[in-house]
Write a structure and sequence with these properties.
This protein is 30% helix and 26% strand. The chain has 242 residues and is an alpha+beta fold. The strands form two sheets. A five-stranded mixed sheet has the order 2-3-1-5-4. The longest helix has 15 residues.
């Protein structure tokens, strides 16, 4: 009998073609990609300890994943670039609502979409009343160990986030998902800046993987494609200079 692979987009067929395959992702942090980032950091004059060591990343990953049954599939919540470029192999994607958090441009970076002269702002999940609407990706248990290594290098490279297990609501039922929330104790966490200041930074910043503006516009486009309302994101887009 020929086994047919499951359709990962069965619940969201409109997302087909709007999510970067992992083989094409620049954010699937393989050894080669990590070495490239290290060279880039050196060119920018960053110290050798600019990021967490591989041991620190692995210790963090093992601690977090050790809290769940390794024989079960793993759900990962996405609210920013993971929504269009998760960089991992997944078997299913659903709409997902996370209560008690909101997406905000509250994490400063001088790499990727920024420079030391003009840092960029990237999204983080801030604890706020209300609900953040995003996506949840299901990674098969057999793949979870390998795939989370890439994910940890991407999200936890400098410890800028807090990996948490949180309940999320999906149209197909509730699940518990891995959530990368804001690490408010991190040096690069700037919190929610005034809207005009946020817009000014996003409008100017640009780095080796693109502009801060393009990131915001891609986020807004993906939210629109999913019919996900977000007044904060819409307001930032409206205020961008032409």
């Amino acid at each position: 009998m020929v086994r047919v692979a499951p359709d990962a987009f069965i619940h969201l067929p409109g997302l087909r073609g709007r999510v970067t395959p992992p083989e094409q992702s620049a954010l699937r942090v393989t050894d080669a990609v990590l070495a490239h980032w290290d060279r880039r950091a050196q060119e920018l004059g960053r110290p050798p300890h600019w990021r967490w060591t591989e041991q620190a990343l692995e210790d963090s990953r093992r601690t977090v994943l050790g809290a769940v049954d390794a024989s079960c599939d793993l759900w990962v919540y996405s609210y920013g670039s993971l929504m269009w470029d998760p960089g991992v192999h997944f078997d299913e994607v659903r709409r997902a609502d996370l209560n008690g958090f909101q997406r905000r441009f509250s994490y400063r970076t001088i790499m990727g979409r920024g420079t030391p002269q003009q840092p960029a702002l990237m999204l983080s999940l801030e604890a706020r009343p209300g609900c953040c609407q995003g996506l949840a990706f299901r990674i098969a248990a057999a793949r979870a160990d390998d795939e989370t290594r890439y994910l940890w290098r991407r999200e936890m490279l400098r410890g800028g986030y807090r990996p948490l297990w949180q309940p999320v609501e999906t149209p197909q039922g509730p699940v518990t998902a891995l959530v990368f929330a804001a690490n408010e104790t991190h040096d690069d966490h700037v919190g929610e800046l005034p809207v005009d200041e946020t817009v000014a930074i996003i409008a100017r910043a640009s780095g080796v993987i693109g502009s801060n503006r393009a990131y915001l516009e891609q986020l807004a486009a993906q939210l629109q494609a999913l019919a996900i309302p977000d007044a904060y994101v819409d307001d930032l887009v409206r205020r961008l200079p032409g």
